[in-house]
Amino acid sequence: MAGEVTEGGASAPSSPLKPYALETCGISKSFGEVHANRNIDLQISTGSIHGIIGENGAGKSTLMNILYGLYQADRGEILINGEVAKITNSAAAIKHGIGMVHQHFMLVDLFTVLENVMLGAEEDFALTKSVASTRALISRMDKDYGLTVDPDTKIADLPVGLQQRVEIIKAMRGGQRILILDEPTGVLTPQETEGLFAILRALRDEGATIMLITHKLQEIMALTDQVSVMRQGEMVAHRATAVTSREELAELMVGRKVLLQVAKPDVVMGAPVLKAENLRYVDDNGVERIKGLNFDVRAGEILSVAGVSGNGQTELLDVLAGILPPSGGSMTIDGTKITAEAPVGPAGMRDLGVSHVPEDRHRRGLVLPFDGLENSILGFQDGPAAGEGFAMDKGAIAARAQRHVEEFDVRPPTAGLRAAQYSGGNQQKLVLAREIDAAPKLLLIGQPTRGVDIGAIEFIYERLMEMKAQGCAILMVSVELEEALSLSDRILVMSNGEQTGMVNREDADEKSLGLMMAGIEEGAA
Amino acid sequence: MNAQNLPRWADIGLLPVLNILAALVVSGLIIALIGEDPFRAMGVMIKGAFVYKGALGYTLYYTTNFIFTGLAVAVAFHCAMFNIGGEGQAYMGGLGAGCAVLLADAILPGFLMIPFAVVFASLFGAVWALIPGWLQAVRGSHIVITTIMFNFIASTLIVALLAGPMMRDGQGAPETRPFAESAQMPYMHDLMAWFGIEAARTPLNISLFLALAAAVLVWFIIWRTRFGYAVRAMGFSPGAAEYAGMNSTRIIVLAMALSGALAGLMASNAVLGEPHKLVLNFTGGYGFTGIAVALMGRNHPIGIVLAALLFGALTQGGTELDFEFQTITRETVLVVQGLIILFSGALYYLFAPWVARVLNLTAKKEAAT
Amino acid sequence: MSDFLFQLLLTFDATLRVAAPLILCGMAGIFSERSGVIDIGLEGKMLAGAFAAAAAAVMTGSPWLGLFAAIGVSVCLSLLHGFACITHRGNQVISGLAINILASALTVTIGIALFKRGGNTPSLEQDMRFRPIEWPLAETLESVPLLGPIYSGVISGHNLLVYVALLAVPLSAWLLFRTSFGLRIRAVGESPEAVDSAGISVYVLRYKAVILAGILCGIAGAYLSIAHGGGFGREMSAGKGYIALAAVIFGKWRPVPTLMACLLFGFLDAATARLQGVELPIIGEAPTELMLALPYILTVVLLAGFIGKATPPKNIGEPYPKGK
Q1: Residues B165-173: contacts with CB within 8 Å, 24+ apart?
Q2: Quick one: which of A9, A225, A292, C53 has the fewest CB in 10 Å?
Q3: A417 touches chain B (CB under 8 A)
Q4: What are residue A276's DSSP bridge partners?
């Protein structure tokens, strides 16, 4: 792949004679059939902030986990300060001077800051020396880099921003000079993000090497000296931040993918089937996941919800499907208004004509140890699909499941296997068949082609177009931009639970959508 | 527990056999270590369980208990609930049966009295399991701990009642008065005699048929009804159950109630069937053994009936050990039980890597030729 | 009134004796469960320890060798538990249950083979047991009002293992909350990923915790058969392991509150024995059965969150997957 490396950046004072702080040569890693990392070459200069950017699933986290010894690479070498390093576990990484700030904090919530920093680096059994030296370390971190945090507060009582500081202190307590941060701003407010960046700059200026993994373009531009772009497990480009642009990076991240040609039927759109007004959802931890969405989906229309995953789309699907209750606002489905005061469960939603193909078919859409027959009535177990009487009608279920298998060309052509034994595409067909069989007025579909082979993708697209032609309103959540562009009539973009854009298909292109996904509101870029 | 990518026949058929073999081998080693001949012991047990006059009757009597308690544990397992309280639920079932009989055996004829007592037994058992189920579903209390505590509470409660208000008048022993004949489960040997077949007098009674019917009913409920469908969906995948709109609290509480009712039904055999009175500790650990029975039977009624027969034979054969040997007794059988729980429960996949390697080797050989 | 005081002191004295094995098993349960391993096998380890202690004491004549045998056997069962639940990631409840059944069956089987007394050991001679230790001046000070009887009647005159049990509490608290070992044990039960990412082995830590639990249960067993009792009797643990487990939950997995729960449960037990058939003012005949069931009822109520909240270690019961 294009491995052009542009040396030097505005503020990266590295000399070519000095060995790189960290270097990888031909790192590859597969999980079963999936190549998470392919032949990764990377050079990180000492004393620089180096960004790694890529979409979700591009293989960034895998690479970081290999560098930190949590995964073992299948092939390839890691060099630290010019010397080959065998990193077989996290202890080895620590010894080689690598510290990691994980996306999900590795902190013990019930412990104080002090105890968390001390854990694993205790110097004496009775902890007297350790406590003193850890206190000194925390105050030094405060003085030197502005990593201010009270050593005696419990982690559970700290806001996330401060918890992250504890992670940074932990990652550097052994004098580590290479710091890896995996999506560090995902959970931070803009103010906290600014604070973090100031700290990271201070660390860099003092000679530390920092690797920042992110999918957010503005962070790369704001903070890094160098940037490397990953796509589908490969390293596709290296740039000095000063000489690149958001637009170029966005294009590199997404790549020029071939759009699947889908023949869209000419459909006269009808009245709105779904209307969301100021729809909000606050999770059990009090975090607002959906922040007042306003949109509608008309009969015969496909509305795509685009966005980097984890920005509220999953919650939106669950709220619309009745799995989660809305916390505010309302959604009106075919004239029936649903509010936080009177939520309707999944069964009630099905009665209203809502079908749901969930994002995660392994956890939600299928019961993996069940066979195709039993899965064909999941969600419809209390209705006529399972038969008339008290007992389930095995014959009726078998006939229905067989019809699904035939109509959706499931292979092998039987419903008798356990769900886990079908390929991803055939599992998705089973779910889709079941949900479409209910003749829904509104079809919710999450990641329609995730883990699905090419042949099945086309099949699934055609089915969706048929539903559209029949006047079904379809709301689709997908992280694949080209999918949204191929299928939909309008695209709603979400970032951090907010609606950052709503564009007609004709007016949309990947670059503008990418900027909206990165949180830059429509028209602001 | 982790699946090891073994073919289904090896997972369901081969591993349990290997695990039982491991349990038997270790038991044999222990018997050899204390200076007895394990093969002779096995012979004695087989004769004691099946061959001697009346042996089969006793074996089937114990089997009946194990079918009930095994089914109880299995139903809860299908809902991913670990009901360790079968012992207490069976004990409460006995209390229910006892209450019903003491209240009504002077009035009701047998064909009404016995069903009445059986219903009471299952109701008491159901309530005793339903409360921990509810506490788990709604309050998040760990069902293992709660059911353990409920075992002890049931035990103290029944001791108090048997030594108090339910004690036979004018007697010192903590037990009820004998039940009237109308409240006694018909013996199997009487039934057979009615058909003109002579059989040895044993405690075996028609509760065996009730147990077999319960096995069929459990199979029907779990695999043929909407409720059973929901129970299994919940047990396998709470996420999918939520997606499907199932009410988890209702399902957990009902599944636990069914589980407790089955455990409670053990009283129809161990109270109405044999001593014909409520005595202390009539449950004799059968509730705990039910866990081994369910584990070995892979939570399927057919497997459970077979496993119950094995444990029934072990129990009855074990009593024979008392007569034949100086040093090994029925407690030795408990060793076998403990080892079976260990191997087929906690170490189920101990042999899986070896099995997988052997299967791989043979597959490769086949591919090579 | 002084008779009442005397009775009360006797009850306190008995409380300590009943509570000692609960305390030891309670501390064992704390270490195991704090590390994330459910331990319903306290009962079985204690029972096996009791048998090993009595058998070894009978054969060697030494209570010390009895104590070591108890610890050895109990630790072996701990290792079995660890092998099943830590190495093989098996179900911790099933493993514990198997250990309890095995202990109950093996003690009787081996007991019959060794001693031919229906599963019991012969009664121990005095010098094979840990004898009561009279504290200095106990008799002299007895006449001092109030403090005298407390000193001589309650504090003095217990066997060594009672004092070991009492010492185990501050020691456990110190180990758990003041040392690097305790820091790691507490961390691994809450968040094994944090421990792993800090470069510490989750498995080794959990093994250490269950071994420690084995040692403490072994001492508890020895207490039953060669200190408090004068020999092993079948099923002599009689559910004490489960009561200790209840005490651990009641004490919210902390040593001092667990001690308090053990003393409370011990007091209920001791008082029940004394109040059997006694008429009390107002309530009438003492509700002894209710008092016996109270530890279990209280634990259920506490677990349900109706009085306070007992939050177990976050990762308890979860095997740690190694090598992704």
Answers
A1: B166/B98, B166/B102, B166/B278, B168/B277
A2: A292
A3: no
A4: A295, A331
What does the alpha-carbon distance between residue A479 and residue A446 come to, in Å, rounded to a whole number?
Answer: 9
Average of per-residue pLDDT across C2-13: 82
Place of tokens 């030296």: A133
In eight-state DSSP terms, residue A506 is G
Over residues B28-46, the mean pLDDT reads: 91
Cα separation values, C109 from A257, A466, B322, B336, B343, Å: 73, 73, 11, 11, 20
Type of residue at B332: T
Note whether A71 contacts C324, CB cutoff 8 Å: yes
Residue B140 pLDDT > 50, yes or no? yes
**Tens of pLDDT, residues C92-104:** 999 999 999 999 9
A72 within domain boundaries: yes
**Residue pLDDT, tens place only, A413-431:** 999 999 988 888 899 999 9
- A interface test, pick of B216, B243, B248, B298 with most A CB neighbours within 10 Å: B243
Q: Rounded to an integer, what distance in angstroms lies between the CA atom of residue B86 and that of residue B73?
A: 7
Q: Give the domain CATH number at C57.
A: 1.10.3470
Structure-block tokens of residue C111: 């007991």
Helix (H) or strand (E) holding A368: none
ipTM of the complex: 0.88
Q: Which CATH number is A248's domain given?
A: 3.40.50.300
Q: Lowest-confidence range among A58-72, A256-270, C281-295? A: A256-270
Neighbours of chain A (3+ CB pairs under 8 A): B, C
Cα A347 from chain centroid (whole Å): 28
Can you read off the two tokens belonging to residue A148?
């201010």
How many domains is chain A partitioned into structurally?
A: 2
CB contact under 8 A, C183 and A127: yes
Question: Based on the structure, what is the number of domains in chain C?
Answer: 1
Confidence (pLDDT) at A524: 55
pLDDT average, residue stretch B16-23: 89
**pLDDT tens figures, B151-209:** 999 999 999 999 888 888 887 888 999 999 999 999 999 999 999 888 899 999 999 99
CB-CB under 8 Å, A348 with B245: yes
The residue among A312 and B215 whose pLDDT is bigger is B215
Burial class (CB in 10 A: 0-12, 13-18, 19+), A16: exposed
Least CB–CB distance from B347: residue in C90, C100, C101:
C90
What is the Cβ-side half-sphere exposure of residue A46, based on CA atoms within 13 angstroms? Answer: 17
Whether chain B has a CB inside 8 Å of the CB on C113: the answer is yes
Distance CA C90, CA C99 (A): 13
For C257, counting Cβ atoms within 10 Å of its Cβ (0-12 exposed, 13-18 middle, 19+ buried), the class is middle
Chain C, nearest residue to A110 by Cα: C190
B4 pLDDT higher than 70: no
Q: What is the domain extent for residue B368?
A: 1-33+332-369
Query: Counting Cβ atoms within 10 Å, is residue A208 exposed (0-12), middle (13-18) or buried (19+)?
Result: buried
CA distance, residue A334 to nearest chain B CA (Å): 20
Rounded CA-CA distance A169/A187 in Å is 18
pLDDT band at residue B348 using 50, 70 and 90 as cut-offs: confident
Q: Give mean pLDDT, residues A245-251.
A: 81
| pTM to 2 decimal places | 0.86
Q: Is the pLDDT of residue A312 over 70?
A: yes
pLDDT of residue A33: 67
Q: Residue A228's closest CA among A48, A43, A37, A14?
A: A43
- Provide the domain limits for residue A293: 272-364+440-517
Are B367 and B240 contained in the same domain?
Answer: no
CA distance A193 to A208: 19
Which two three-digit tokens encode residue A48? 């620089």
Sort residue A32 into left (φ over 0), alpha (ψ -120 to 50) or beta: left
Residue C68 has pLDDT above 50, yes or no: yes
Provide the residue type at B314 as one letter: L
Residue A262 lies in a domain: no
